[in-house]
Amino acid sequence: MWDIEEFERAAHTTVAALAAYVDESQHGLPPVTAQRPPAELARRLGIRRWIREGGMTDEDYRRFLDVYLAEGTRLHHPSYLGHQSAAPDFPAALADFVHGATNNPMAIYEMGASAATVELEILRWMLDKVGFGSAGGGVLTHGGSLANLTAMLAARARAVPEAWTDGVPGDLALLAPPSAHYSVTRAAAILGLGERAIIPLPVDRLGRIEVARLPEALEHARRAGRRPFVLVASACSTGTGLYDDLRPIGEFCAEHGIWFHVDGAHGASALLSDAHRHLLDGIETADSVIWDAHKMMRVSSLATAVLVRREADLDRAFQQEASYLFYGERSFDLIGRTVECTKAQLGLKIFLNLAWRGERGMGEYVAARYATAHRLWELARERPGFTCPYEPQSNIVCFRYGSREVDQAALRKRLMDDGTFYLTSTEVDGVRHLRATVIAPATDDKAIEALLDAIAEVGTRIAA
Protein backbone atom coordinates (compact mmCIF):
# COMPACT_ATOMS: atom_id res chain seq x y z
CA MET A 1 0.00 0.00 0.00
CA TRP A 2 1.04 3.59 -0.59
CA ASP A 3 2.45 5.58 2.27
CA ILE A 4 0.26 8.63 1.60
CA GLU A 5 2.45 11.03 3.52
CA GLU A 6 5.52 9.87 1.60
CA PHE A 7 3.62 10.28 -1.67
CA GLU A 8 2.57 13.82 -0.75
CA ARG A 9 6.14 14.80 0.14
CA ALA A 10 7.51 13.34 -3.08
CA ALA A 11 4.73 14.97 -5.12
CA HIS A 12 5.50 18.34 -3.54
CA THR A 13 9.20 17.87 -4.34
CA THR A 14 8.29 16.99 -7.93
CA VAL A 15 6.01 19.99 -8.45
CA ALA A 16 8.54 22.40 -6.98
CA ALA A 17 11.38 21.02 -9.15
CA LEU A 18 9.28 21.03 -12.33
CA ALA A 19 7.98 24.54 -11.69
CA ALA A 20 11.54 25.83 -11.34
CA TYR A 21 12.63 23.83 -14.40
CA VAL A 22 9.89 25.22 -16.65
CA ASP A 23 10.32 28.75 -15.33
CA GLU A 24 14.06 28.93 -15.95
CA SER A 25 13.62 27.13 -19.30
CA GLN A 26 11.01 29.63 -20.51
CA HIS A 27 13.35 32.47 -19.59
CA GLY A 28 16.24 30.84 -21.49
CA LEU A 29 18.57 30.79 -18.49
CA PRO A 30 20.34 27.40 -18.81
CA PRO A 31 21.52 25.77 -22.07
CA VAL A 32 18.67 24.38 -24.16
CA THR A 33 20.19 20.88 -24.22
CA ALA A 34 22.87 18.76 -22.59
CA GLN A 35 24.54 15.90 -24.47
CA ARG A 36 26.65 14.12 -21.88
CA PRO A 37 27.68 10.52 -22.83
CA PRO A 38 25.38 7.84 -21.33
CA ALA A 39 28.04 6.15 -19.16
CA GLU A 40 29.08 9.44 -17.58
CA LEU A 41 25.49 10.50 -17.03
CA ALA A 42 24.57 7.14 -15.52
CA ARG A 43 27.34 7.63 -12.96
CA ARG A 44 26.16 11.14 -12.12
CA LEU A 45 22.63 9.90 -11.60
CA GLY A 46 23.76 6.85 -9.60
CA ILE A 47 21.42 4.69 -11.64
CA ARG A 48 23.09 1.32 -11.07
CA ARG A 49 23.33 1.87 -7.33
CA TRP A 50 19.64 2.76 -7.03
CA ILE A 51 18.65 -0.25 -9.12
CA ARG A 52 20.77 -2.53 -6.94
CA GLU A 53 20.07 -1.15 -3.48
CA GLY A 54 16.89 0.91 -3.56
CA GLY A 55 16.16 2.95 -0.45
CA MET A 56 15.74 6.33 -2.12
CA THR A 57 14.50 9.00 0.31
CA ASP A 58 12.74 12.25 -0.48
CA GLU A 59 16.03 14.13 -0.19
CA ASP A 60 17.78 11.58 -2.44
CA TYR A 61 14.95 11.95 -4.92
CA ARG A 62 15.28 15.76 -4.90
CA ARG A 63 19.01 15.52 -5.73
CA PHE A 64 18.38 12.90 -8.41
CA LEU A 65 15.66 15.02 -9.99
CA ASP A 66 17.86 18.11 -10.05
CA VAL A 67 20.51 16.28 -12.08
CA TYR A 68 17.96 14.44 -14.23
CA LEU A 69 16.22 17.65 -15.29
CA ALA A 70 19.45 19.55 -15.87
CA GLU A 71 20.78 16.87 -18.24
CA GLY A 72 17.83 16.70 -20.63
CA THR A 73 16.48 18.88 -23.43
CA ARG A 74 14.36 21.90 -22.49
CA LEU A 75 11.41 22.04 -24.88
CA HIS A 76 10.05 25.18 -23.16
CA HIS A 77 13.29 27.06 -23.95
CA PRO A 78 13.15 29.92 -26.51
CA SER A 79 16.16 28.33 -28.26
CA TYR A 80 14.37 25.00 -28.75
CA LEU A 81 13.70 24.80 -32.50
CA GLY A 82 14.22 21.08 -32.90
CA HIS A 83 11.91 18.16 -33.45
CA GLN A 84 8.13 18.30 -33.56
CA SER A 85 7.51 17.60 -29.90
CA ALA A 86 5.33 19.95 -27.91
CA ALA A 87 6.38 22.25 -25.13
CA PRO A 88 3.50 20.77 -23.12
CA ASP A 89 0.97 22.98 -21.41
CA PHE A 90 0.50 22.36 -17.70
CA PRO A 91 -3.05 20.89 -17.93
CA ALA A 92 -1.65 18.02 -20.05
CA ALA A 93 1.05 17.48 -17.42
CA LEU A 94 -1.66 17.24 -14.76
CA ALA A 95 -3.39 14.60 -16.86
CA ASP A 96 -0.19 12.54 -16.95
CA PHE A 97 0.01 12.82 -13.17
CA VAL A 98 -3.60 11.65 -12.78
CA HIS A 99 -3.01 8.73 -15.14
CA GLY A 100 0.17 7.76 -13.33
CA ALA A 101 -1.72 7.44 -10.06
CA THR A 102 -5.00 5.93 -11.28
CA ASN A 103 -3.74 3.77 -14.18
CA ASN A 104 -7.11 3.10 -15.82
CA PRO A 105 -6.37 1.26 -19.11
CA MET A 106 -9.57 2.47 -20.72
CA ALA A 107 -9.57 0.62 -24.05
CA ILE A 108 -12.10 -1.51 -22.17
CA TYR A 109 -14.83 0.80 -20.91
CA GLU A 110 -15.32 -0.97 -17.58
CA MET A 111 -11.63 -0.37 -16.77
CA GLY A 112 -11.99 3.41 -16.98
CA ALA A 113 -15.43 4.79 -17.71
CA SER A 114 -14.45 8.43 -17.11
CA ALA A 115 -11.34 8.20 -19.29
CA ALA A 116 -13.19 6.37 -22.07
CA THR A 117 -16.03 8.88 -22.05
CA VAL A 118 -13.60 11.79 -22.27
CA GLU A 119 -11.86 10.12 -25.22
CA LEU A 120 -15.14 9.49 -27.03
CA GLU A 121 -16.13 13.14 -26.66
CA ILE A 122 -12.69 14.38 -27.78
CA LEU A 123 -12.96 12.13 -30.84
CA ARG A 124 -16.44 13.49 -31.58
CA TRP A 125 -15.00 17.01 -31.48
CA MET A 126 -12.06 16.11 -33.75
CA LEU A 127 -14.35 14.33 -36.23
CA ASP A 128 -16.43 17.49 -36.48
CA LYS A 129 -13.30 19.57 -37.04
CA VAL A 130 -12.16 17.50 -40.03
CA GLY A 131 -15.69 17.41 -41.46
CA PHE A 132 -16.56 13.75 -40.88
CA GLY A 133 -19.36 14.48 -38.41
CA SER A 134 -21.52 11.84 -36.73
CA ALA A 135 -20.97 9.25 -39.48
CA GLY A 136 -17.27 9.04 -38.70
CA GLY A 137 -15.37 7.08 -36.10
CA GLY A 138 -12.06 7.30 -34.34
CA VAL A 139 -9.65 6.22 -31.65
CA LEU A 140 -6.63 7.73 -29.89
CA THR A 141 -3.34 5.88 -30.21
CA HIS A 142 0.17 6.21 -28.77
CA GLY A 143 1.69 8.18 -31.63
CA GLY A 144 1.55 8.86 -35.33
CA SER A 145 3.34 5.70 -36.41
CA LEU A 146 0.68 3.51 -34.81
CA ALA A 147 -1.97 5.83 -36.17
CA ASN A 148 -0.73 5.55 -39.76
CA LEU A 149 -0.54 1.79 -39.39
CA THR A 150 -4.10 1.66 -38.04
CA ALA A 151 -5.40 3.75 -40.95
CA MET A 152 -3.59 1.48 -43.43
CA LEU A 153 -5.21 -1.54 -41.78
CA ALA A 154 -8.64 0.05 -42.18
CA ALA A 155 -7.90 0.77 -45.85
CA ARG A 156 -6.73 -2.81 -46.40
CA ALA A 157 -9.82 -4.22 -44.70
CA ARG A 158 -12.04 -2.22 -47.02
CA ALA A 159 -10.13 -3.22 -50.16
CA VAL A 160 -9.42 -6.86 -49.23
CA PRO A 161 -11.67 -8.00 -46.34
CA GLU A 162 -10.22 -11.51 -46.44
CA ALA A 163 -6.61 -10.34 -45.92
CA TRP A 164 -6.82 -10.77 -42.14
CA THR A 165 -7.44 -14.51 -42.44
CA ASP A 166 -6.02 -15.39 -45.86
CA GLY A 167 -3.01 -13.09 -46.05
CA VAL A 168 -2.18 -10.11 -48.23
CA PRO A 169 -2.53 -10.42 -52.02
CA GLY A 170 0.72 -9.81 -53.83
CA ASP A 171 -0.68 -7.18 -56.18
CA LEU A 172 -1.67 -4.50 -53.67
CA ALA A 173 0.08 -1.13 -53.92
CA LEU A 174 0.30 2.01 -51.82
CA LEU A 175 0.70 5.40 -53.49
CA ALA A 176 2.76 7.92 -51.50
CA PRO A 177 5.17 10.77 -52.17
CA PRO A 178 8.85 10.22 -51.32
CA SER A 179 8.41 12.99 -48.72
CA ALA A 180 5.86 10.97 -46.75
CA HIS A 181 6.72 10.21 -43.12
CA TYR A 182 8.90 7.11 -42.73
CA SER A 183 6.13 5.41 -40.73
CA VAL A 184 4.20 4.96 -43.99
CA THR A 185 6.98 2.73 -45.33
CA ARG A 186 7.10 0.91 -42.00
CA ALA A 187 3.35 0.36 -42.15
CA ALA A 188 3.64 -1.15 -45.63
CA ALA A 189 6.28 -3.58 -44.39
CA ILE A 190 4.37 -4.48 -41.21
CA LEU A 191 1.20 -5.05 -43.25
CA GLY A 192 3.06 -7.60 -45.35
CA LEU A 193 2.98 -5.48 -48.50
CA GLY A 194 6.72 -4.86 -48.54
CA GLU A 195 8.54 -1.66 -49.49
CA ARG A 196 8.31 -2.51 -53.20
CA ALA A 197 4.54 -2.15 -52.98
CA ILE A 198 4.98 1.60 -52.45
CA ILE A 199 4.58 3.45 -55.75
CA PRO A 200 6.24 6.88 -55.42
CA LEU A 201 4.00 9.73 -56.49
CA PRO A 202 5.44 12.49 -58.69
CA VAL A 203 6.33 15.58 -56.67
CA ASP A 204 7.64 19.06 -57.30
CA ARG A 205 11.13 20.13 -56.20
CA LEU A 206 9.82 20.79 -52.67
CA GLY A 207 8.28 17.33 -52.30
CA ARG A 208 4.60 18.28 -52.81
CA ILE A 209 2.37 15.93 -54.79
CA GLU A 210 1.90 17.03 -58.40
CA VAL A 211 -1.82 16.55 -58.82
CA ALA A 212 -1.76 16.80 -62.63
CA ARG A 213 0.56 13.76 -62.79
CA LEU A 214 -1.51 11.47 -60.57
CA PRO A 215 -3.04 9.65 -63.58
CA GLU A 216 0.51 8.92 -64.73
CA ALA A 217 1.37 7.31 -61.37
CA LEU A 218 -1.82 5.25 -61.37
CA GLU A 219 -1.16 4.02 -64.89
CA HIS A 220 2.42 3.13 -63.93
CA ALA A 221 1.16 1.05 -61.02
CA ARG A 222 -1.40 -0.77 -63.13
CA ARG A 223 1.11 -1.51 -65.89
CA ALA A 224 3.30 -3.08 -63.20
CA GLY A 225 0.41 -5.40 -62.31
CA ARG A 226 -0.32 -3.54 -59.07
CA ARG A 227 -3.68 -2.66 -57.54
CA PRO A 228 -3.42 0.65 -55.64
CA PHE A 229 -5.72 0.57 -52.62
CA VAL A 230 -4.61 3.69 -50.73
CA LEU A 231 -3.02 7.06 -51.48
CA VAL A 232 -1.21 9.06 -48.78
CA ALA A 233 -0.97 12.86 -48.75
CA SER A 234 0.78 15.08 -46.20
CA ALA A 235 -0.75 17.92 -44.22
CA CYS A 236 1.89 18.98 -43.64
CA SER A 237 5.14 17.30 -44.68
CA THR A 238 7.38 16.41 -41.76
CA GLY A 239 10.54 17.69 -43.44
CA THR A 240 9.41 20.99 -44.93
CA GLY A 241 6.10 21.80 -43.24
CA LEU A 242 4.42 22.22 -46.65
CA TYR A 243 0.86 21.05 -47.31
CA ASP A 244 -0.29 18.91 -50.22
CA ASP A 245 -3.30 20.20 -52.20
CA LEU A 246 -5.91 17.95 -50.59
CA ARG A 247 -9.12 18.69 -52.48
CA PRO A 248 -8.04 17.69 -56.01
CA ILE A 249 -6.20 14.66 -54.59
CA GLY A 250 -9.37 13.60 -52.80
CA GLU A 251 -11.41 14.03 -55.98
CA PHE A 252 -8.90 11.90 -57.90
CA CYS A 253 -9.10 9.14 -55.29
CA ALA A 254 -12.91 9.19 -55.28
CA GLU A 255 -12.99 8.95 -59.07
CA HIS A 256 -10.70 5.90 -59.09
CA GLY A 257 -11.97 4.10 -55.99
CA ILE A 258 -8.76 4.57 -53.98
CA TRP A 259 -8.76 5.11 -50.20
CA PHE A 260 -7.51 8.65 -49.49
CA HIS A 261 -5.40 8.94 -46.32
CA VAL A 262 -4.22 12.30 -44.99
CA ASP A 263 -1.25 12.27 -42.66
CA GLY A 264 -2.14 15.39 -40.69
CA ALA A 265 0.01 14.42 -37.72
CA HIS A 266 1.70 17.80 -37.53
CA GLY A 267 -0.46 20.17 -39.51
CA ALA A 268 -4.08 19.21 -38.82
CA SER A 269 -4.08 21.56 -35.81
CA ALA A 270 -4.23 24.43 -38.32
CA LEU A 271 -7.95 23.59 -38.43
CA LEU A 272 -8.17 25.47 -35.11
CA SER A 273 -6.81 28.73 -36.59
CA ASP A 274 -9.14 30.92 -38.64
CA ALA A 275 -6.13 32.26 -40.52
CA HIS A 276 -4.74 28.85 -41.48
CA ARG A 277 -7.56 26.31 -41.83
CA HIS A 278 -7.64 26.98 -45.59
CA LEU A 279 -4.40 24.96 -45.78
CA LEU A 280 -6.53 21.88 -45.11
CA ASP A 281 -9.24 22.61 -47.66
CA GLY A 282 -10.58 19.28 -48.86
CA ILE A 283 -9.60 17.26 -45.80
CA GLU A 284 -13.24 16.19 -45.49
CA THR A 285 -12.85 14.24 -48.76
CA ALA A 286 -10.37 11.88 -47.05
CA ASP A 287 -11.30 8.39 -45.96
CA SER A 288 -8.92 8.63 -43.00
CA VAL A 289 -6.93 11.30 -41.20
CA ILE A 290 -4.38 11.16 -38.41
CA TRP A 291 -3.86 14.13 -36.08
CA ASP A 292 -1.18 14.41 -33.39
CA ALA A 293 -2.13 16.31 -30.25
CA HIS A 294 1.45 16.01 -28.95
CA LYS A 295 2.69 18.47 -31.54
CA MET A 296 0.63 21.61 -32.07
CA MET A 297 -1.97 21.04 -29.35
CA ARG A 298 0.68 21.25 -26.60
CA VAL A 299 -0.02 17.76 -25.26
CA SER A 300 2.78 15.66 -23.77
CA SER A 301 3.79 12.60 -25.78
CA LEU A 302 1.97 10.65 -27.04
CA ALA A 303 -1.61 11.19 -28.24
CA THR A 304 -2.68 10.76 -31.87
CA ALA A 305 -6.18 10.49 -33.29
CA VAL A 306 -7.08 8.08 -36.08
CA LEU A 307 -10.23 9.44 -37.71
CA VAL A 308 -12.25 7.73 -40.46
CA ARG A 309 -15.13 9.06 -42.53
CA ARG A 310 -17.16 5.84 -42.08
CA GLU A 311 -17.08 4.42 -38.57
CA ALA A 312 -17.52 0.81 -39.73
CA ASP A 313 -14.23 0.98 -41.64
CA LEU A 314 -12.28 1.37 -38.41
CA ASP A 315 -14.21 -1.42 -36.72
CA ARG A 316 -13.17 -3.75 -39.55
CA ALA A 317 -9.47 -2.89 -39.24
CA PHE A 318 -8.86 -5.53 -36.55
CA GLN A 319 -10.31 -8.93 -35.75
CA GLN A 320 -9.75 -10.54 -32.38
CA GLU A 321 -10.74 -13.42 -30.16
CA ALA A 322 -10.04 -13.59 -26.43
CA SER A 323 -12.66 -15.14 -24.20
CA TYR A 324 -11.47 -13.21 -21.15
CA LEU A 325 -12.05 -9.88 -22.94
CA PHE A 326 -14.63 -10.15 -25.67
CA TYR A 327 -17.98 -11.29 -24.40
CA GLY A 328 -21.36 -9.75 -23.63
CA GLU A 329 -22.29 -6.18 -24.50
CA ARG A 330 -19.12 -4.15 -25.22
CA SER A 331 -20.47 -1.30 -27.34
CA PHE A 332 -18.36 1.39 -25.62
CA ASP A 333 -15.04 -0.49 -25.81
CA LEU A 334 -12.28 0.96 -28.00
CA ILE A 335 -10.00 -2.06 -27.85
CA GLY A 336 -11.26 -3.40 -31.19
CA ARG A 337 -9.90 -0.32 -32.96
CA THR A 338 -6.30 -0.29 -31.75
CA VAL A 339 -3.08 -2.26 -31.74
CA GLU A 340 -2.87 -1.54 -28.01
CA CYS A 341 -4.70 -3.66 -25.47
CA THR A 342 -3.60 -1.54 -22.51
CA LYS A 343 -4.06 2.09 -23.48
CA ALA A 344 -3.32 5.22 -21.44
CA GLN A 345 -5.89 7.91 -20.68
CA LEU A 346 -4.87 9.91 -23.75
CA GLY A 347 -8.07 11.87 -24.13
CA LEU A 348 -7.68 13.46 -20.70
CA LYS A 349 -4.53 15.30 -21.82
CA ILE A 350 -6.28 16.83 -24.81
CA PHE A 351 -9.43 17.59 -22.83
CA LEU A 352 -7.69 19.42 -20.00
CA ASN A 353 -5.72 21.60 -22.43
CA LEU A 354 -8.99 22.47 -24.18
CA ALA A 355 -10.77 22.95 -20.86
CA TRP A 356 -8.18 25.50 -19.79
CA ARG A 357 -7.47 27.21 -23.13
CA GLY A 358 -10.54 26.55 -25.25
CA GLU A 359 -10.63 26.10 -29.02
CA ARG A 360 -9.86 29.78 -29.48
CA GLY A 361 -6.80 29.65 -27.23
CA MET A 362 -5.50 26.58 -29.05
CA GLY A 363 -6.04 28.27 -32.41
CA GLU A 364 -4.24 31.41 -31.24
CA TYR A 365 -1.25 29.31 -30.20
CA VAL A 366 -1.09 27.63 -33.63
CA ALA A 367 -1.43 30.97 -35.42
CA ALA A 368 1.27 32.55 -33.24
CA ARG A 369 3.78 29.75 -33.90
CA TYR A 370 3.07 29.85 -37.64
CA ALA A 371 3.52 33.64 -37.58
CA THR A 372 6.82 33.44 -35.69
CA ALA A 373 8.11 30.89 -38.19
CA HIS A 374 7.16 33.22 -41.01
CA ARG A 375 9.04 35.99 -39.22
CA LEU A 376 12.13 33.75 -39.06
CA TRP A 377 11.87 33.28 -42.83
CA GLU A 378 11.49 37.02 -43.41
CA LEU A 379 14.50 37.89 -41.25
CA ALA A 380 16.69 35.11 -42.70
CA ARG A 381 16.14 36.04 -46.34
CA GLU A 382 17.01 39.67 -45.59
CA ARG A 383 20.43 38.71 -44.19
CA PRO A 384 23.50 38.15 -46.38
CA GLY A 385 24.60 34.53 -46.61
CA PHE A 386 21.18 32.99 -45.91
CA THR A 387 19.09 31.25 -48.56
CA CYS A 388 15.51 30.05 -48.12
CA PRO A 389 14.09 27.62 -50.70
CA TYR A 390 10.42 28.44 -50.06
CA GLU A 391 8.01 30.54 -48.02
CA PRO A 392 6.86 28.49 -45.01
CA GLN A 393 3.22 27.46 -44.67
CA SER A 394 3.50 26.19 -41.10
CA ASN A 395 5.88 26.51 -38.15
CA ILE A 396 8.69 24.64 -39.95
CA VAL A 397 11.35 26.68 -41.75
CA CYS A 398 14.21 25.35 -43.87
CA PHE A 399 17.21 27.49 -44.83
CA ARG A 400 20.96 27.41 -45.50
CA TYR A 401 23.88 29.59 -44.54
CA GLY A 402 26.90 30.16 -46.73
CA SER A 403 27.93 28.60 -50.00
CA ARG A 404 26.98 25.13 -51.14
CA GLU A 405 30.29 23.88 -49.72
CA VAL A 406 29.46 24.89 -46.13
CA ASP A 407 28.56 21.75 -44.17
CA GLN A 408 25.15 22.52 -42.67
CA ALA A 409 25.22 19.41 -40.46
CA ALA A 410 28.56 20.53 -38.99
CA LEU A 411 27.15 24.00 -38.43
CA ARG A 412 24.21 22.52 -36.55
CA LYS A 413 26.50 20.34 -34.45
CA ARG A 414 28.53 23.36 -33.30
CA LEU A 415 25.35 25.04 -32.06
CA MET A 416 24.23 21.85 -30.33
CA ASP A 417 27.57 21.12 -28.67
CA ASP A 418 27.49 24.21 -26.50
CA GLY A 419 23.73 24.03 -25.90
CA THR A 420 23.12 27.42 -27.51
CA PHE A 421 20.38 26.33 -29.91
CA TYR A 422 18.61 23.11 -30.80
CA LEU A 423 17.57 22.82 -34.43
CA THR A 424 17.50 19.96 -36.91
CA SER A 425 18.43 19.40 -40.55
CA THR A 426 16.85 17.91 -43.66
CA GLU A 427 17.30 17.73 -47.42
CA VAL A 428 15.27 19.99 -49.69
CA ASP A 429 15.54 19.31 -53.42
CA GLY A 430 18.52 17.04 -52.71
CA VAL A 431 20.46 19.70 -50.76
CA ARG A 432 21.13 19.64 -47.01
CA HIS A 433 19.44 22.50 -45.12
CA LEU A 434 19.05 23.63 -41.54
CA ARG A 435 15.52 23.12 -40.24
CA ALA A 436 13.81 25.04 -37.44
CA THR A 437 10.50 24.03 -35.85
CA VAL A 438 9.02 27.01 -34.01
CA ILE A 439 7.01 25.28 -31.30
CA ALA A 440 7.95 26.74 -27.90
CA PRO A 441 5.73 29.67 -26.85
CA ALA A 442 8.85 31.45 -25.50
CA THR A 443 10.49 31.66 -28.94
CA ASP A 444 10.22 35.29 -30.06
CA ASP A 445 11.94 37.78 -32.37
CA LYS A 446 14.82 38.18 -29.90
CA ALA A 447 15.49 34.43 -29.95
CA ILE A 448 15.25 34.35 -33.74
CA GLU A 449 17.70 37.22 -34.16
CA ALA A 450 20.09 35.48 -31.75
CA LEU A 451 19.77 32.25 -33.75
CA LEU A 452 20.60 33.96 -37.02
CA ASP A 453 23.55 35.80 -35.38
CA ALA A 454 24.90 32.52 -34.00
CA ILE A 455 24.52 30.71 -37.34
CA ALA A 456 26.30 33.51 -39.20
CA GLU A 457 29.16 33.53 -36.67
CA VAL A 458 29.63 29.74 -36.67
CA GLY A 459 29.07 29.46 -40.41
CA THR A 460 31.72 32.08 -41.12
CA ARG A 461 34.25 30.20 -38.97
CA ILE A 462 33.46 26.91 -40.74
CA ALA A 463 33.80 28.54 -44.17
CA ALA A 464 37.17 30.01 -43.17
UniProtKB/TrEMBL annotation:
<dbReference type="GO" id="GO:0019752">
    <property type="term" value="P:carboxylic acid metabolic process"/>
</dbReference>
<dbReference type="Pfam" id="PF00282">
    <property type="entry name" value="Pyridoxal_deC"/>
</dbReference>
<dbReference type="GO" id="GO:0030170">
    <property type="term" value="F:pyridoxal phosphate binding"/>
</dbReference>
<protein>
    <submittedName>
        <fullName>L-2,4-diaminobutyrate decarboxylase</fullName>
    </submittedName>
</protein>
<dbReference type="GO" id="GO:0004058">
    <property type="term" value="F:aromatic-L-amino-acid decarboxylase activity"/>
</dbReference>
<dbReference type="InterPro" id="IPR010977">
    <property type="entry name" value="Aromatic_deC"/>
</dbReference>
<keyword id="KW-0456">Lyase</keyword>
<dbReference type="InterPro" id="IPR002129">
    <property type="entry name" value="PyrdxlP-dep_de-COase"/>
</dbReference>
<dbReference type="InterPro" id="IPR015421">
    <property type="entry name" value="PyrdxlP-dep_Trfase_major"/>
</dbReference>
<comment type="similarity">
    <text>Belongs to the group II decarboxylase family.</text>
</comment>
<dbReference type="GO" id="GO:0006520">
    <property type="term" value="P:amino acid metabolic process"/>
</dbReference>
<keyword id="KW-0210">Decarboxylase</keyword>
<dbReference type="GO" id="GO:0005737">
    <property type="term" value="C:cytoplasm"/>
</dbReference>
<keyword id="KW-0663">Pyridoxal phosphate</keyword>
<dbReference type="InterPro" id="IPR015424">
    <property type="entry name" value="PyrdxlP-dep_Trfase"/>
</dbReference>
<feature type="modified residue" description="N6-(pyridoxal phosphate)lysine">
    <location>
        <position position="295"/>
    </location>
</feature>
